[in-house]
Fold these 2 entries.
Entry 1:
Amino acid sequence: MTTGACLASLGHFVTCVDVDRAKVSRLGAGRVDILEPGLADLVHRGLAAGRLEFVVGARDAVRHAQAVFLCVPTPMGAGGSADLRAVEAVTAEIGDVLPRGCALVTKSTVPVGTSKRIQALVGRPDVPVVSNPEFLREGTAVADFLGPDRIVVGSDDLAAARWVGDLYAELDAPVVVADAASAELVKYAANCYLALKLSYVNSIAELCERLGADISLVTEGMGYDRRIGRTFLKPGPGWGGSCLPKDTSALVKVAESVNYDFTMLTSAIDENLAQRDRIVAKIAGAVGGTLAGARIGVLGLAFKAGTNDLRDSPALAVSSVLCALGAELIAYDPAVDGEIAGMTVVDDAYQVAKDADVVVVLTEWAEFKHLDWAAMAELMEGVDVVDTRNLLDPRVIVDAGLSWQGVGRPRAAARIKVS
Ligand code: UDX
């Protein structure tokens, strides 16, 4: 949907196809359900200008297309490989009705070699298959699409790849034209590099705790090195979301398929699980070592701030372990409502603090910084705040009469009241 609305905003005429009738009619009426800044506006403008439509039925929709973008999901399948059933099904469905010369473009993250498989499956030498991976982050997808760091297009038909690159001519971004395999690998290589970077940062944060150093200063010192860069250097409860976990597993599988043991990447995945365990141990320590029966207030459930996405959320993973170990969880996330098994989800941060032995920040929503922490302290039973995102100002927490511990930073202990 983001791809469709953004391509329409570049001046193209776009028909978005989905199998979900209800979703299609909601979108056709301009109702956008996902939390994605700027998207609803683009959808409204596209609909009003007649450049964007939403339909069910792929065969009719593609009959006169110059390009068809496959944006279907490629979830983690058996054994960690990408599940390509949706890509294959839609290719088989539309193969014989694509017009001559129409580019069949894969946006979905697909293993190296998929373009070739699609080319074979579509059975049409007159239909070039082009890989055009997207690098959109949730929560900033529209801004990422319209202000990309780069456009990558790859095909064994280079003229077709260039033509797809030209669809983005309005945007001021370098275009990397590649063969199909290289373009397909760029997406995995980039996402897995980001995962490696974060696992590395989380390991350095652990070292900081053991050595008495401060990760915020260490990463500040590292980040000014332009070869490293200042972004994607924040420690946390582990990396999650709908892309990094599935793409790291899929690349390990891709490597296995060519007999390469990608130990660096498997270590990064293991380190990510170890980080969750360390966070659980830290929370257990804050409640005296035993989680059974502890009342834990959880701030944040989404996999990162700015989204309501719970898929592969480290916050949810940590919460589930806490529940399994017998803790009682009261959770609040500004973008999440409804029921989550094992915990009580409330709609106000202060309810989380009520009678809590410890309050844990698991997602970096800015609003948690601006809570009245003195009021939170009043409501709490215990005095500990575990801030897995290093979001809060430790001085504010200590001034409120509480103790603060983050990740990779020195603890700030509550002042003992002298009566
Ligand atoms: C990611 C890629 O960034 C994007 O290019 C790709 O197209 C899709 O996958 P997204 O899944 O939306 O995007 O999330 P991202 O912002 O990359 O965060 C991934 C995870 O890393 C989150 O759990 C986030 O909390 C964590 N993270 C990110 C950190 O722990 N520290 C950081 O410094 C940055």
Entry 2:
Amino acid sequence: LNMERDLRRAIQCDELEPYFQPQYDLAKMELIGFEALVRWKHPTRGLLPPVEFIDLAEKTHMIVEIGYVVFERACAQLEQMQQHTKSSLAMSINMSPRQLEDEDLIEKLTSIMDRYNTNPGNLLLEITENVVMSKTAKTLEVLNSIKALGIQIALDDFGTGYSSISYLQEFPFDQIKIDRQFIVNSHQNETDVRLVKLIVGMAETLGLEAVAEGIDNIEQLSKLQELDCSLGQGYLFSKPVTGWEAMKLVTGEK
Ligand code: G
Ligand code: G
Ligand code: MN
Ligand code: NA
């Protein structure tokens, strides 16, 4: 209960802020964009990762408010970064199912994008497989409205849920993010290699971009390059960093 009050205050006092994990084109080894990952700068407990507060935020619906905070901060960050580079950068933002149920979603996203001159084509909203499984008709309608704004949609944590190939066709996805569990042993376990190969091939067949999550070492990277997985992120490249550090990655400053 204290924690709930604490989180409400955190939203008011601007204690929530996204960190940014860089994403790379694996063939060219070029920075292509970032995933925004929320952190809580707690006044006494230090920097808290999402696992410490996202469940509570979902249960209390505070995740809707937090979602707009993260979306706005990510758009602001992207606007700043685009002033320092000619290449167009992607910004991926995680969305909880509750956010998709918010009546004002489309209006609010539109007004935030207007405020920061965001090119909607540079944004991706990540939803998990569980979202896809529940509330199919309404979810599909909302995702189509998001697509109509020009924003792309990524299916997060792919392989951990129960989505079928028919869902992948039916929903307006642009990208699938291969869950870290398949990447972890993809340099040493033949079954995992075959699964990743299968997912990359399926993505290509369906016209979707494949993103590997949690690339930790060079062997995993080499395997993913060999399998033509187009994009990736992970500690090998960088952990999630502050907006300031993300900016330095873009400008090439040390
Ligand atoms: O940064 P970290 O690996 O601890 O993030 C763990 C998970 O927390 C992410 O995979 C994502 O599912 C969730 N998460 C991170 N940031 C956000 C956010 O801004 N909104 C929502 N809904 N989930 C987030
Ligand atoms: O959205 P999602 O739940 O997939 O968020 C990705 C999370 O995974 C982030 O919280 C990030 O901190 C974490 N992460 C990113 N890259 C790596 C990695 O290479 N190894 C591990 N163990 N975790 C990672
Ligand atoms: Mn994600
Ligand atoms: Na994920």
